[in-house]
Design brief:
Pathway: Glycan biosynthesis; glycogen biosynthesis. Monomer. The chain is α+β, with helices and mostly antiparallel strands. The chain folds into four domains: about 90 residues, Immunoglobulins (Immunoglobulin-like, Sandwich), CATH 2.60.40.10; about 110 residues, Sandwich (Immunoglobulin-like), CATH 2.60.40.10; about 240 residues, TIM Barrel (Alpha-Beta Barrel); about 250 residues, Immunoglobulin-like (Sandwich). It is built from 19 helices and 38 strands. The chain has an eight-stranded parallel beta barrel with strand order 19-20-23-26-27-28-29-30. It has a six-stranded antiparallel sheet with strand order 31-32-33-38-35-36.
């Protein structure tokens, strides 16, 4: 139970050091810290509101102070009745209590100024000669009484909200405080009588940078400590002079809640009894120059909904129902399994839906279309929705825009129950400069490199992480583990890997410093990525990591212990986005068919390097925004030809070695670019819309592609094995035709042939293996069901002893215009 003291007249506050600034008000959860009227609102009254004047002025220039703090009441105990005195009962009032030796001016000033490293050494209970010294800092209180079994003793006031006395006791009892605010009082345990709630093992692992469950050690954690329920607050701020907890429970005035430093670890800690779920909080940090800043918790597991930015005390109560999925997801290596991904921007897929409402729609839609996985664009908390989540401020907190962390767990659980894996975009490359978040967190560069030129990300106006700092690397590695273990994420797609790997990324000559070997490689980032991948794969069976890496870095998907020709071990990713294939193939299909023969090599070049890494073929959000046009709108010709090109391209993509990824809206040939403000144009699928069959036909094709793909091992079983692919004819540039064979592990074949010309090619001969007597058409993107012209090969295609394409046998086919065919043994 908690109770809230009253609003009170404004009192002076402690001033920052000379010349320093105080920006604490600007960081208070996006709201002004205005005083509340006596009695508060109904919610406050229900928790025990009381009114009364403040007592004890604080030295220093006056400034507006927020309303009086809410004290944490002792569990199971009610506040004293209104109007009761905080003094002791007759015969015991002040009995045996002697005044304490006053604090030194230095300690007093540092304590009240939020710059003391050891407030527990001054506050709480301490044995002294002749008894037990108890000192309490309760701003705005009129009096403080110590309560214990057989004890009721009033502490003399020392001014500035300090109360202290020496009691005739030899040991420290389990005492509580009765804090009098005039018309009412609150009974509560003393936060400063508790030992540190963070263990030595945690501190040791933190110091080594090996705390793989960092979220268990830092941040706000609800717990029972020394028999009392409350919340332990911990934060890493090694450059701070002092740190205080501020929040709704003290009206964002942290004077009474300074934290203690836990030595060389750089961690600050405070256990607050009675504080529980839903409380808003931040950390008020006194910088090295004496100024103050109020910061959100870097380890917060829940946040306010933007634009508000306070951290929220949270604990998960979700009970998972996906045990079968979790046990089976790693049975087959991902590069030897079907892997077809639907990329989703959750806030705009169906704008306005919560996580739980999405759980009622998204799994069914994705399952119906046959995708094996969904990929969420970043769900970590971010202040600006227009960043799509790629500028993260809350690395451990799902965005509150659509609900609570447990609501997100509910959505992921629903997808797993539908048999759909969940991938998540993860952004360890950079973070924004918001002055309430990570940038210069404790007054100096902390998460970012010390050198401002090295810290600044040249493309996005953000800051890069200091991958060479042990604690920063630990923060990120543990974050990857956190999403996989706490949210059952099945894969992490790591954003902007290239910008991490190269010291000269987007930098001009002279604008970067070479590594110790004189090279351009960021050795610290390489080591971080290797550690992250090794840790995730060790701890989280069945999880896959995927690199968005846009260069030819050697060994992105090679094991970390296998050293390549460049002298580096592999980065250890499971898969890599094939940005080269994406760029080349889209460039080809955007050309008019009459010009395509001059760009034929752009479609065949990918097979030169197709087995250098384990690839995903991505048509992602990046390709359908910012003037790049939607996929169907990239295609030349009239509306029929655009859709035909679109369908043929998808058929080619699904048959090409590598896994597939398609961004939402492209599955039904949305013509407009994606915009996060409104999402896909679902109205195109409204039966009342005249052109609805055109869009429904493309979606029906995507469903059939995924269905055929799932039951055809030749299309995925040997994606990373050159023996799984053979050109039939990769040089038919005059015809705009591409034909090749795919083979399963047992040798079972599939023929894919794509005609990127708008003419029908009759009796088009293809050289085929002589071991197959006849072939049948199993997919044709020109089928009338999909909006095509309906030119098909309805009967078996008999293998003939006619040499062609370097083979001794061949078949004769009809190739529809702008279409892809798949043929299987009949």
């Amino acid at each position: 139970m908690t109770a809230r003291p009253p609003s009170r007249p404004t009192t002076p506050d402690t001033a920052p050091a000379p010349g320093a600034t105080d920006d604490s008000a600007a960081g208070r959860s996006g709201r002004a810290a205005t005083p509340r009227p006596p009695g508060g609102d109904s919610a406050v009254a229900a928790r025990g509101t009381f009114a009364g004047p403040a007592a004890g002025s604080v030295t220093g220039p006056a400034r507006t102070r927020p309303s009086a703090p809410r004290e944490a009441a002792a569990p199971g105990r009610a506040p004293a009745p209104a109007g009761s005195s905080s003094g002791a009962a007759p015969g015991t009032a002040g009995h045996g209590v002697r005044p304490a030796v006053p604090l030194s001016d230095e300690d007093r000033g540092r304590l009240l100024g939020g710059a003391h490293h050891d407030p527990h050494g001054l506050l709480g209970a301490h044995p002294v000669r002749g008894g037990l010294l108890i000192r309490v800092l309760r701003p705005c209180a009129k009096g403080v009484t110590v309560l214990a079994k057989g004890l009721r003793a009033t502490l003399p006031a020392e001014g500035d909200g300090l109360f202290a006395g020496v009691l005739p006791l030899r040991t420290v009892p389990d005492y509580e405080l009765l804090v009098d605010y005039g018309d009412n009082a609150v009974r509560m345990p003393d936060p400063y009588r508790f030992l540190p709630a963070l263990g030595e093992l945690d501190l040791h692992l933190l110091g080594e940078g090996r705390h793989e469950e960092l979220w268990q050690a830092l941040g706000a954690r609800i717990m029972e400590h020394q028999g009392v329920r409350g919340t332990r607050f911990t934060v890493w701020a090694p450059n701070a002079q002092g740190v205080r907890v501020v929040g709704d429970f003290n009206y964002w005035e942290g004077t009474g809640h300074p934290m203690r430093s836990l030595g060389s670890s750089g961690v600050w800690e405070l256990f607050l009894p009675g504080i529980g779920e839903g409380e808003l909080y931040k950390f008020e940090i006194t910088r090295p120059d004496g100024s103050r800043t109020v910061r959100a918790d870097p380890m917060a597991r829940r946040t306010e909904c933007p634009p508000a930015n306070a951290s929220v005390v949270d604990a998960s109560h979700y009970r998972w129902t996906d045990a079968d999925w979790m046990a089976r997801r790693g049975e087959r290596p991902v590069h030897e399994a079907p892997f077809s991904v639907y990329e989703v921007h959750l806030p705009s897929w169906r704008p306005g839906l919560t996580y739980r409402q999405l759980a009622a729609q998204l799994p069914g839609y994705v399952k119906d279309l046959g995708f094996t996985h969904v990929e969420f664009m970043p769900v970590s908390e971010h202040p600006f929705g227009g960043s799509w989540g790629y500028q993260v401020t809350g690395f451990y907190a799902p965005t509150a825009r659509m609900g609570t962390p447990d609501d997100l767990r509910f959505l992921i659980d629903a997808l797993h129950r539908a048999g759909i894996g969940v991938l998540m975009d993860w952004v360890p490359a950079h973070f924004p400069r918001d002055d309430w978040a990570l940038a210069e967190f404790d007054g100096r560069p902390l998460y970012e490199p010390q050198d401002p030129a090295r810290a600044a990300h040249p493309d996005w106006g953000t800051l890069e992480f200091d991958y060479g700092r042990t604690e920063v690397r630990n923060f990120l590695v543990a974050n990857a583990v956190y999403w996989c273990e706490e949210f059952h994420i099945d894969g992490l797609r790591v954003d902007a890997v290239a910008s991490m790997l190269y010291l000269d990324y987007s930098r001009e000559d002279g604008g970067w410093t070479p590594n110790v070997h004189g090279g351009r490689e960021n050795l610290d980032a390489v080591a971080f990525l290797q550690e992250m991948n090794a840790t995730v794969y060790r701890r989280c069976p069945g999880v896959v990591t995927i690199a968005e890496e846009s260069t030819a870095w050697d060994g992105v998907t090679r094991a970390t212990h296998h050293v390549g020709p460049g002298g580096f071990g592999g980065l250890g990713f499971g898969l890599k986005w094939n940005m080269g294939w994406m760029h080349d193939s889209l460039g080809y299909v955007s050309k008019e068919p009459v010009h395509r023969k001059y760009h034929h090599g752009e479609m065949t070049f990918s097979m030169i390097y197709a087995y250098s890494e384990n690839y995903v073929l991505p048509i992602s959000h990046d390709e359908v925004v910012h003037g790049k046009r939607a996929l169907v709108s990239k295609m030349p010709g009239d509306w029929w030809q655009q859709r035909a090109n679109h369908r043929a391209y998808l058929g080619f993509m699904w048959a090409h070695p590598g896994k597939q990824l398609l961004f939402m809206g492209q599955e039904f040939a949305q013509g407009a670019e994606w915009a996060e403000s409104h999402g896909p144009d679902w109205w195109l699928l409204d039966p009342s819309y005249e052109a609805e069959p055109d869009h429904r036909g493309v979606r029906d094709l995507v469903r059939e592609l995924n269905r055929r793909y799932a039951v055809t091992p030749a299309l995925w079983e040997r994606d990373t094995d050159p023996a799984g692919f053979s050109w039939i004819d990769g040089g038919a540039s005059e015809d705009n035709v591409f034909s090749f064979l795919r083979f399963g592990a047992d040798g079972s074949p599939l023929i894919s042939v794509t005609n990127f010309s708008p003419v029908v090619r009759h009796a088009y001969r293809l050289g085929v293996p002589g071991t197959v007597p006849a072939w049948r058409e199993v997919l044709n993107t020109d089928d009338a069901r999909y909006g095509g012209s309906g030119i098909t090969n309805p009967g078996p295609l008999t293998t003939e002893a006619t040499p062609w394409n370097g083979r001794t046998t061949s078949v004769s086919t009809v190739l529809p215009p702008l279409a892809t065919l798949w043929l299987r043994p009949s």
